[in-house]
Amino acid sequence: MNKKRIPSLSSNFADLISENAYYVDKTPFIHNLENLNFKYLFFLRPRRFGKYLFLSMLQYYYGIQYKDQFEALFGEYFIGKPENRTKLQNFYQILRFDFSGISTQNSVQIRDSFNLRLNSGFREFYSNYGLLDEKILDNSEINLEPADYFINLISIISSKNSGKKIYLMIDEYDHFTNELFAFDTNHFVDIVSGNGWVRKFYEVIKQFMGSGLIDRFFATGVTPVTLDSMTSGFNVARNISLSEDFNNLAGFTETELRGLITNTLDQNAGFDLEQIILDMRNWYNGSRFSPEGGDKLYNPQMVISFISDFSLKYAYPERMIDINVTSDFKKIANILRGLHKEERDSIIDQVLSNETISEGLTIQYNFEKPFSKTDAVSLLFYNGLLTIVDSFSGLLTYVIPNYVIKQLYWEYFRSLKETEDNFSFDIAEIGFSLKEMSIDGKIQRLVEYSQKVMNSISFRDLQNFNEKHLKMIFMTLLAGNSAYFVSSELETGPGYADIYLKRTKSNPASLIT
Is residue 506 helix, strand or coil? Predict the structure, then answer.
Protein backbone atom coordinates (compact mmCIF):
# COMPACT_ATOMS: atom_id res chain seq x y z
CA MET A 1 0.00 0.00 0.00
CA ASN A 2 1.35 3.42 -0.98
CA LYS A 3 1.90 5.71 1.97
CA LYS A 4 0.36 9.14 2.22
CA ARG A 5 2.40 12.17 3.20
CA ILE A 6 2.19 13.36 6.77
CA PRO A 7 -0.14 16.36 6.57
CA SER A 8 1.38 19.78 6.98
CA LEU A 9 -0.17 22.26 9.37
CA SER A 10 -1.76 24.03 6.41
CA SER A 11 -5.52 24.30 6.82
CA ASN A 12 -6.42 24.41 3.13
CA PHE A 13 -8.30 21.24 2.20
CA ALA A 14 -7.46 21.35 -1.52
CA ASP A 15 -3.74 21.84 -0.85
CA LEU A 16 -3.73 18.88 1.51
CA ILE A 17 -5.38 16.62 -1.08
CA SER A 18 -3.16 17.81 -3.96
CA GLU A 19 -0.06 17.06 -1.87
CA ASN A 20 -1.28 13.46 -1.38
CA ALA A 21 -1.27 14.11 2.37
CA TYR A 22 -3.33 12.00 4.73
CA TYR A 23 -6.72 13.47 5.58
CA VAL A 24 -8.62 12.29 8.65
CA ASP A 25 -12.04 11.95 7.04
CA LYS A 26 -14.55 14.31 8.66
CA THR A 27 -16.87 14.37 5.61
CA PRO A 28 -19.55 12.14 7.25
CA PHE A 29 -20.43 15.14 9.41
CA ILE A 30 -21.84 16.87 6.32
CA HIS A 31 -24.87 14.57 6.65
CA ASN A 32 -25.15 15.36 10.37
CA LEU A 33 -25.15 19.09 9.66
CA GLU A 34 -27.66 18.94 6.82
CA ASN A 35 -30.03 16.72 8.82
CA LEU A 36 -30.36 19.31 11.57
CA ASN A 37 -33.45 21.49 11.70
CA PHE A 38 -31.12 24.50 11.92
CA LYS A 39 -29.27 26.04 8.98
CA TYR A 40 -27.33 28.68 10.93
CA LEU A 41 -24.71 27.14 13.21
CA PHE A 42 -21.89 28.00 15.59
CA PHE A 43 -19.20 25.43 16.41
CA LEU A 44 -16.70 26.18 19.20
CA ARG A 45 -13.42 24.44 19.89
CA PRO A 46 -9.98 25.42 21.28
CA ARG A 47 -7.32 26.79 18.99
CA ARG A 48 -5.35 24.32 16.84
CA PHE A 49 -8.12 21.75 16.95
CA GLY A 50 -8.91 21.49 13.24
CA LYS A 51 -11.79 23.96 12.91
CA TYR A 52 -10.24 25.87 10.01
CA LEU A 53 -9.59 22.71 7.98
CA PHE A 54 -13.16 21.54 8.51
CA LEU A 55 -14.47 24.90 7.32
CA SER A 56 -12.17 24.68 4.29
CA MET A 57 -13.53 21.21 3.51
CA LEU A 58 -17.11 22.57 3.63
CA GLN A 59 -16.11 25.38 1.29
CA TYR A 60 -14.85 22.94 -1.37
CA TYR A 61 -17.86 20.62 -0.96
CA TYR A 62 -20.53 23.30 -1.26
CA GLY A 63 -18.85 25.84 -3.56
CA ILE A 64 -20.31 26.01 -7.07
CA GLN A 65 -16.91 26.85 -8.54
CA TYR A 66 -15.38 23.55 -7.37
CA LYS A 67 -17.90 21.27 -9.11
CA ASP A 68 -15.41 20.09 -11.74
CA GLN A 69 -12.87 19.24 -9.03
CA PHE A 70 -15.25 17.16 -6.91
CA GLU A 71 -13.90 13.72 -7.84
CA ALA A 72 -10.28 14.77 -7.36
CA LEU A 73 -11.01 16.35 -3.99
CA PHE A 74 -13.53 13.94 -2.44
CA GLY A 75 -13.43 10.75 -4.49
CA GLU A 76 -11.67 8.61 -1.90
CA TYR A 77 -13.64 9.89 1.11
CA PHE A 78 -17.05 9.06 2.54
CA ILE A 79 -18.91 11.98 0.98
CA GLY A 80 -17.34 11.29 -2.40
CA LYS A 81 -19.14 7.96 -2.85
CA PRO A 82 -22.22 8.44 -5.07
CA GLU A 83 -24.58 6.99 -2.48
CA ASN A 84 -23.34 9.42 0.19
CA ARG A 85 -23.51 12.71 -1.68
CA THR A 86 -26.18 15.23 -0.74
CA LYS A 87 -28.49 17.39 -2.84
CA LEU A 88 -26.56 20.49 -1.76
CA GLN A 89 -23.23 19.35 -3.25
CA ASN A 90 -21.63 22.31 -5.13
CA PHE A 91 -24.89 24.23 -4.75
CA TYR A 92 -23.81 27.50 -3.10
CA GLN A 93 -21.79 30.61 -3.66
CA ILE A 94 -19.37 30.75 -0.72
CA LEU A 95 -18.78 34.00 1.18
CA ARG A 96 -16.08 33.47 3.77
CA PHE A 97 -14.54 35.74 6.40
CA ASP A 98 -11.55 35.12 8.70
CA PHE A 99 -11.56 37.32 11.81
CA SER A 100 -8.36 35.97 13.38
CA GLY A 101 -5.45 38.32 13.93
CA ILE A 102 -7.49 41.52 14.16
CA SER A 103 -5.56 44.17 16.08
CA THR A 104 -7.16 45.20 19.38
CA GLN A 105 -4.96 48.17 20.30
CA ASN A 106 -7.70 50.80 20.04
CA SER A 107 -11.38 51.05 19.11
CA VAL A 108 -10.91 52.65 15.67
CA GLN A 109 -8.20 50.20 14.71
CA ILE A 110 -10.41 47.24 15.68
CA ARG A 111 -13.28 48.46 13.52
CA ASP A 112 -11.09 49.31 10.52
CA SER A 113 -9.23 46.00 10.76
CA PHE A 114 -12.58 44.20 10.91
CA ASN A 115 -13.71 46.05 7.77
CA LEU A 116 -10.51 45.07 5.98
CA ARG A 117 -11.35 41.43 6.69
CA LEU A 118 -14.82 42.02 5.24
CA ASN A 119 -13.22 43.63 2.19
CA SER A 120 -10.89 40.67 1.73
CA GLY A 121 -13.77 38.18 1.93
CA PHE A 122 -15.87 40.12 -0.58
CA ARG A 123 -12.90 40.50 -2.94
CA GLU A 124 -12.50 36.73 -3.04
CA PHE A 125 -16.25 36.29 -3.56
CA TYR A 126 -16.44 38.80 -6.40
CA SER A 127 -13.42 37.22 -8.08
CA ASN A 128 -14.81 33.68 -7.77
CA TYR A 129 -18.21 34.57 -9.22
CA GLY A 130 -17.34 37.23 -11.80
CA LEU A 131 -18.84 40.16 -9.91
CA LEU A 132 -15.81 42.46 -9.92
CA ASP A 133 -16.82 46.01 -9.15
CA GLU A 134 -14.89 49.23 -8.66
CA LYS A 135 -16.42 49.70 -5.20
CA ILE A 136 -14.61 46.63 -3.86
CA LEU A 137 -11.29 47.56 -5.47
CA ASP A 138 -10.67 50.52 -3.15
CA ASN A 139 -11.05 51.08 0.57
CA SER A 140 -12.81 54.44 0.40
CA GLU A 141 -15.60 53.23 2.68
CA ILE A 142 -13.36 51.44 5.17
CA ASN A 143 -14.27 53.92 7.92
CA LEU A 144 -17.98 53.03 7.81
CA GLU A 145 -19.63 51.05 10.57
CA PRO A 146 -19.20 47.33 9.69
CA ALA A 147 -22.97 46.80 9.36
CA ASP A 148 -23.22 49.59 6.77
CA TYR A 149 -20.06 48.45 5.02
CA PHE A 150 -21.48 44.91 4.80
CA ILE A 151 -24.75 46.19 3.35
CA ASN A 152 -22.93 48.23 0.71
CA LEU A 153 -20.75 45.33 -0.39
CA ILE A 154 -23.42 42.63 -0.39
CA SER A 155 -25.85 44.86 -2.29
CA ILE A 156 -23.73 44.24 -5.40
CA ILE A 157 -24.26 40.50 -4.96
CA SER A 158 -27.97 40.95 -4.39
CA SER A 159 -28.34 42.85 -7.66
CA LYS A 160 -26.20 40.55 -9.83
CA ASN A 161 -26.35 36.99 -8.53
CA SER A 162 -29.52 35.92 -10.44
CA GLY A 163 -31.15 34.13 -7.52
CA LYS A 164 -28.13 32.07 -6.43
CA LYS A 165 -27.92 31.43 -2.69
CA ILE A 166 -24.98 32.10 -0.38
CA TYR A 167 -23.37 29.89 2.25
CA LEU A 168 -21.73 32.32 4.71
CA MET A 169 -18.73 30.91 6.60
CA ILE A 170 -16.88 32.75 9.37
CA ASP A 171 -13.68 31.49 10.95
CA GLU A 172 -12.68 32.66 14.46
CA TYR A 173 -15.77 34.83 14.87
CA ASP A 174 -14.67 35.74 18.41
CA HIS A 175 -10.86 35.87 18.16
CA PHE A 176 -10.56 39.64 18.60
CA THR A 177 -13.44 39.94 21.06
CA ASN A 178 -11.92 37.25 23.29
CA GLU A 179 -8.77 39.37 23.52
CA LEU A 180 -10.86 42.38 24.47
CA PHE A 181 -12.74 40.34 27.05
CA ALA A 182 -9.44 39.42 28.69
CA PHE A 183 -7.98 42.94 28.80
CA ASP A 184 -10.79 45.50 28.41
CA THR A 185 -14.18 44.14 29.45
CA ASN A 186 -15.89 47.53 29.24
CA HIS A 187 -14.90 48.00 25.61
CA PHE A 188 -15.95 44.41 24.90
CA VAL A 189 -19.43 45.08 26.26
CA ASP A 190 -19.65 48.39 24.34
CA ILE A 191 -19.06 46.84 20.91
CA VAL A 192 -20.81 43.48 21.38
CA SER A 193 -23.90 44.25 23.47
CA GLY A 194 -26.75 46.73 23.07
CA ASN A 195 -26.03 49.07 20.14
CA GLY A 196 -22.46 47.86 19.65
CA TRP A 197 -21.20 47.53 16.09
CA VAL A 198 -20.45 43.80 16.37
CA ARG A 199 -24.03 43.11 17.38
CA LYS A 200 -25.36 45.34 14.57
CA PHE A 201 -23.16 43.52 12.06
CA TYR A 202 -24.78 40.18 12.94
CA GLU A 203 -28.23 41.77 12.93
CA VAL A 204 -27.61 42.73 9.29
CA ILE A 205 -26.56 39.16 8.49
CA LYS A 206 -29.83 38.03 10.07
CA GLN A 207 -31.74 40.37 7.76
CA PHE A 208 -30.15 38.82 4.66
CA MET A 209 -30.93 35.37 6.05
CA GLY A 210 -34.54 36.44 6.28
CA SER A 211 -34.50 37.64 2.67
CA GLY A 212 -33.20 34.24 1.54
CA LEU A 213 -29.94 35.52 0.05
CA ILE A 214 -27.88 33.91 2.84
CA ASP A 215 -29.26 30.38 3.01
CA ARG A 216 -26.72 28.72 5.32
CA PHE A 217 -24.27 29.93 7.94
CA PHE A 218 -21.43 28.16 9.75
CA ALA A 219 -19.12 30.00 12.15
CA THR A 220 -16.26 28.72 14.27
CA GLY A 221 -14.77 30.17 17.43
CA VAL A 222 -13.49 29.28 20.87
CA THR A 223 -15.95 30.50 23.51
CA PRO A 224 -19.65 31.44 23.64
CA VAL A 225 -18.98 34.76 25.40
CA THR A 226 -19.43 36.94 22.31
CA LEU A 227 -22.32 34.82 21.05
CA ASP A 228 -24.13 35.13 24.38
CA SER A 229 -23.70 38.89 24.44
CA MET A 230 -25.43 39.35 21.07
CA THR A 231 -28.02 36.57 21.43
CA SER A 232 -31.16 38.68 21.05
CA GLY A 233 -29.70 40.33 17.96
CA PHE A 234 -28.78 37.03 16.33
CA ASN A 235 -31.20 34.52 17.83
CA VAL A 236 -31.53 32.49 14.62
CA ALA A 237 -28.29 30.56 15.13
CA ARG A 238 -27.76 27.29 16.96
CA ASN A 239 -24.64 26.48 19.01
CA ILE A 240 -23.88 22.76 18.44
CA SER A 241 -20.60 22.74 20.37
CA LEU A 242 -21.79 20.71 23.40
CA SER A 243 -23.75 18.12 21.40
CA GLU A 244 -22.48 14.56 21.67
CA ASP A 245 -23.28 14.15 17.95
CA PHE A 246 -20.59 16.71 17.10
CA ASN A 247 -18.04 15.90 19.81
CA ASN A 248 -15.71 14.34 17.21
CA LEU A 249 -16.20 16.90 14.43
CA ALA A 250 -12.77 18.39 15.20
CA GLY A 251 -9.85 16.60 16.86
CA PHE A 252 -8.73 12.99 16.35
CA THR A 253 -10.19 9.89 17.96
CA GLU A 254 -7.72 7.14 18.78
CA THR A 255 -8.98 5.13 15.81
CA GLU A 256 -8.33 8.13 13.55
CA LEU A 257 -4.87 8.56 15.07
CA ARG A 258 -4.02 4.92 14.30
CA GLY A 259 -5.14 5.46 10.73
CA LEU A 260 -2.93 8.53 10.45
CA ILE A 261 0.15 6.68 11.76
CA THR A 262 -0.28 3.45 9.79
CA ASN A 263 -0.99 5.28 6.54
CA THR A 264 1.98 7.66 6.75
CA LEU A 265 4.86 6.04 8.68
CA ASP A 266 7.00 3.20 7.35
CA GLN A 267 6.06 0.07 9.30
CA ASN A 268 9.45 -1.44 8.41
CA ALA A 269 11.21 1.20 10.49
CA GLY A 270 10.77 -1.09 13.49
CA PHE A 271 8.85 1.20 15.81
CA ASP A 272 6.38 -0.15 18.36
CA LEU A 273 2.97 1.19 17.30
CA GLU A 274 1.29 0.32 20.59
CA GLN A 275 4.01 2.04 22.61
CA ILE A 276 3.75 5.16 20.46
CA ILE A 277 -0.04 5.23 20.90
CA LEU A 278 0.38 4.82 24.67
CA ASP A 279 2.87 7.68 24.91
CA MET A 280 0.83 9.95 22.66
CA ARG A 281 -2.23 9.17 24.77
CA ASN A 282 -0.42 10.54 27.83
CA TRP A 283 0.87 13.65 26.08
CA TYR A 284 -1.92 14.67 23.69
CA ASN A 285 -5.18 12.79 24.35
CA GLY A 286 -8.05 13.44 26.74
CA SER A 287 -10.26 16.25 25.41
CA ARG A 288 -14.02 15.73 25.47
CA PHE A 289 -16.51 18.48 24.81
CA SER A 290 -19.95 17.08 25.52
CA PRO A 291 -21.43 16.61 29.02
CA GLU A 292 -23.36 13.70 27.50
CA GLY A 293 -20.24 11.71 26.65
CA GLY A 294 -18.22 10.89 23.57
CA ASP A 295 -14.69 9.87 22.63
CA LYS A 296 -11.62 11.42 24.16
CA LEU A 297 -9.85 13.39 21.46
CA TYR A 298 -6.28 14.15 20.47
CA ASN A 299 -5.18 17.68 19.63
CA PRO A 300 -4.42 17.53 15.86
CA GLN A 301 -1.61 20.09 15.80
CA MET A 302 0.22 18.43 18.70
CA VAL A 303 -0.16 15.01 17.07
CA ILE A 304 0.98 16.10 13.60
CA SER A 305 3.96 18.00 15.01
CA PHE A 306 5.06 14.92 16.95
CA ILE A 307 4.62 12.50 14.03
CA SER A 308 6.51 14.86 11.71
CA ASP A 309 9.45 15.07 14.13
CA PHE A 310 9.34 11.33 14.88
CA SER A 311 9.40 10.42 11.17
CA LEU A 312 12.78 12.11 10.61
CA LYS A 313 14.81 9.50 12.53
CA TYR A 314 12.06 7.32 14.03
CA ALA A 315 13.08 8.58 17.44
CA TYR A 316 11.23 10.69 19.97
CA PRO A 317 11.92 14.42 19.67
CA GLU A 318 13.71 16.17 22.50
CA ARG A 319 10.68 18.39 23.01
CA MET A 320 7.30 16.69 23.15
CA ILE A 321 5.45 20.02 23.22
CA ASP A 322 4.97 22.16 20.12
CA ILE A 323 6.67 25.51 20.68
CA ASN A 324 3.44 27.28 19.64
CA VAL A 325 1.64 25.72 22.61
CA THR A 326 4.07 26.57 25.39
CA SER A 327 2.99 30.20 25.67
CA ASP A 328 -0.64 29.21 26.20
CA PHE A 329 -0.17 29.32 29.97
CA LYS A 330 -0.87 33.05 29.54
CA LYS A 331 -4.44 32.13 28.63
CA ILE A 332 -4.87 30.69 32.10
CA ALA A 333 -3.72 33.99 33.58
CA ASN A 334 -6.09 35.97 31.34
CA ILE A 335 -9.08 33.82 32.28
CA LEU A 336 -8.41 33.88 36.03
CA ARG A 337 -7.53 37.59 36.11
CA GLY A 338 -11.18 38.55 36.62
CA LEU A 339 -11.53 36.60 39.88
CA HIS A 340 -10.68 37.56 43.44
CA LYS A 341 -7.34 36.11 44.53
CA GLU A 342 -9.02 33.62 46.88
CA GLU A 343 -11.19 32.20 44.09
CA ARG A 344 -8.28 32.10 41.66
CA ASP A 345 -6.05 30.30 44.15
CA SER A 346 -8.85 27.86 44.98
CA ILE A 347 -9.11 26.81 41.31
CA ILE A 348 -5.36 26.41 40.89
CA ASP A 349 -5.09 24.53 44.18
CA GLN A 350 -7.79 22.02 43.20
CA VAL A 351 -6.54 21.56 39.65
CA LEU A 352 -2.89 21.09 40.60
CA SER A 353 -3.24 19.29 43.94
CA ASN A 354 -6.15 17.00 43.11
CA GLU A 355 -5.98 17.15 39.31
CA THR A 356 -9.77 17.48 39.29
CA ILE A 357 -12.37 20.15 40.01
CA SER A 358 -16.17 20.02 40.23
CA GLU A 359 -18.17 23.00 39.01
CA GLY A 360 -21.13 24.00 36.89
CA LEU A 361 -20.91 24.98 33.23
CA THR A 362 -21.79 28.49 32.15
CA ILE A 363 -23.88 28.15 29.00
CA GLN A 364 -24.70 31.84 28.69
CA TYR A 365 -22.55 34.68 30.06
CA ASN A 366 -24.33 37.59 31.72
CA PHE A 367 -22.29 40.78 32.12
CA GLU A 368 -24.81 42.29 34.48
CA LYS A 369 -23.53 39.83 37.07
CA PRO A 370 -19.99 39.60 38.52
CA PHE A 371 -17.59 37.21 36.81
CA SER A 372 -17.80 34.01 38.88
CA LYS A 373 -15.69 30.97 39.63
CA THR A 374 -18.07 28.88 37.49
CA ASP A 375 -17.59 31.35 34.61
CA ALA A 376 -13.80 31.02 34.88
CA VAL A 377 -13.79 27.21 35.06
CA SER A 378 -16.13 27.14 32.06
CA LEU A 379 -13.74 29.34 30.06
CA LEU A 380 -10.87 27.02 30.95
CA PHE A 381 -13.02 24.22 29.52
CA TYR A 382 -13.94 26.08 26.33
CA ASN A 383 -10.25 26.88 25.76
CA GLY A 384 -9.29 23.20 26.09
CA LEU A 385 -7.49 23.70 29.41
CA LEU A 386 -9.94 21.47 31.27
CA THR A 387 -12.15 18.68 29.99
CA ILE A 388 -15.30 16.90 31.14
CA VAL A 389 -15.10 13.39 32.62
CA ASP A 390 -18.47 13.21 34.36
CA SER A 391 -21.68 15.16 34.85
CA PHE A 392 -24.61 14.84 37.20
CA SER A 393 -27.56 17.19 37.54
CA GLY A 394 -25.66 20.24 36.33
CA LEU A 395 -22.50 19.50 38.32
CA LEU A 396 -19.58 18.61 36.07
CA THR A 397 -16.29 16.99 36.98
CA TYR A 398 -13.36 18.47 35.08
CA VAL A 399 -9.79 17.22 34.76
CA ILE A 400 -6.67 18.36 32.94
CA PRO A 401 -6.96 16.61 29.55
CA ASN A 402 -3.34 15.58 29.04
CA TYR A 403 0.24 16.07 30.11
CA VAL A 404 0.92 18.97 27.75
CA ILE A 405 -1.88 20.99 29.34
CA LYS A 406 -0.73 19.96 32.80
CA GLN A 407 2.64 21.53 32.07
CA LEU A 408 0.91 24.76 31.08
CA TYR A 409 -0.69 24.93 34.51
CA TRP A 410 2.66 24.43 36.22
CA GLU A 411 4.20 27.12 34.00
CA TYR A 412 1.40 29.45 35.08
CA PHE A 413 1.90 28.55 38.75
CA ARG A 414 5.64 29.10 38.43
CA SER A 415 5.05 32.50 36.82
CA LEU A 416 2.61 33.38 39.60
CA LYS A 417 5.16 32.53 42.29
CA GLU A 418 7.87 34.53 40.55
CA THR A 419 5.76 37.66 40.16
CA GLU A 420 3.67 37.64 43.34
CA ASP A 421 5.87 35.83 45.88
CA ASN A 422 9.31 36.81 44.57
CA PHE A 423 10.36 33.22 44.03
CA SER A 424 13.36 32.73 41.79
CA PHE A 425 13.69 29.52 39.77
CA ASP A 426 17.01 28.69 38.13
CA ILE A 427 15.97 26.72 35.04
CA ALA A 428 19.55 25.61 34.30
CA GLU A 429 20.05 24.31 37.85
CA ILE A 430 16.75 22.42 37.71
CA GLY A 431 17.81 20.90 34.39
CA PHE A 432 21.21 19.77 35.75
CA SER A 433 19.50 18.30 38.82
CA LEU A 434 17.03 16.33 36.75
CA LYS A 435 19.79 15.13 34.42
CA GLU A 436 21.84 13.88 37.36
CA MET A 437 18.79 12.15 38.82
CA SER A 438 17.95 10.58 35.48
CA ILE A 439 21.42 9.38 34.43
CA ASP A 440 23.05 8.62 37.78
CA GLY A 441 20.00 8.00 39.96
CA LYS A 442 21.15 10.69 42.42
CA ILE A 443 18.67 13.16 43.92
CA GLN A 444 21.02 15.11 46.23
CA ARG A 445 21.46 18.05 43.88
CA LEU A 446 17.68 18.38 43.41
CA VAL A 447 17.12 18.18 47.19
CA GLU A 448 19.74 20.86 47.86
CA TYR A 449 18.26 23.17 45.24
CA SER A 450 14.78 22.60 46.68
CA GLN A 451 16.09 23.63 50.10
CA LYS A 452 17.58 26.76 48.58
CA VAL A 453 14.20 27.69 47.07
CA MET A 454 12.41 27.03 50.35
CA ASN A 455 14.90 29.17 52.25
CA SER A 456 13.98 32.12 50.05
CA ILE A 457 10.44 32.15 51.46
CA SER A 458 9.90 34.94 53.95
CA PHE A 459 8.91 34.26 57.57
CA ARG A 460 5.52 35.90 56.96
CA ASP A 461 4.77 33.47 54.13
CA LEU A 462 5.89 30.54 56.26
CA GLN A 463 3.26 31.29 58.92
CA ASN A 464 0.53 29.73 56.76
CA PHE A 465 2.83 27.31 54.97
CA ASN A 466 1.99 23.58 55.16
CA GLU A 467 2.84 20.25 53.56
CA LYS A 468 0.53 20.91 50.62
CA HIS A 469 2.37 24.12 49.74
CA LEU A 470 5.71 22.33 50.04
CA LYS A 471 4.52 19.69 47.60
CA MET A 472 3.28 22.28 45.10
CA ILE A 473 6.62 24.14 45.18
CA PHE A 474 8.46 20.86 44.64
CA MET A 475 6.09 19.94 41.81
CA THR A 476 6.83 23.31 40.22
CA LEU A 477 10.52 22.41 40.10
CA LEU A 478 9.78 19.07 38.48
CA ALA A 479 7.14 20.17 35.98
CA GLY A 480 7.94 21.58 32.58
CA ASN A 481 10.50 18.91 31.68
CA SER A 482 10.23 16.11 29.13
CA ALA A 483 12.20 13.56 31.15
CA TYR A 484 9.48 12.53 33.59
CA PHE A 485 5.73 12.33 33.81
CA VAL A 486 4.98 13.97 37.16
CA SER A 487 1.74 13.07 38.97
CA SER A 488 0.22 14.24 42.22
CA GLU A 489 -1.75 11.95 44.54
CA LEU A 490 -1.49 9.01 42.15
CA GLU A 491 -3.28 5.91 43.38
CA THR A 492 -0.75 3.14 44.01
CA GLY A 493 -2.52 0.07 45.34
CA PRO A 494 -3.18 0.57 49.04
CA GLY A 495 -2.68 4.33 49.05
CA TYR A 496 -1.67 7.46 47.16
CA ALA A 497 1.77 8.74 46.27
CA ASP A 498 2.27 12.43 47.10
CA ILE A 499 4.48 12.82 44.04
CA TYR A 500 5.05 10.14 41.43
CA LEU A 501 7.68 10.33 38.67
CA LYS A 502 7.71 8.06 35.63
CA ARG A 503 10.37 8.20 32.92
CA THR A 504 9.24 9.30 29.48
CA LYS A 505 10.75 8.12 26.20
CA SER A 506 12.58 11.45 26.06
CA ASN A 507 14.42 10.61 29.27
CA PRO A 508 18.10 9.97 28.48
CA ALA A 509 18.07 7.01 30.88
CA SER A 510 15.47 5.27 28.71
CA LEU A 511 18.21 4.79 26.09
CA ILE A 512 20.58 3.11 28.54
CA THR A 513 20.46 -0.68 28.59
Answer: coil
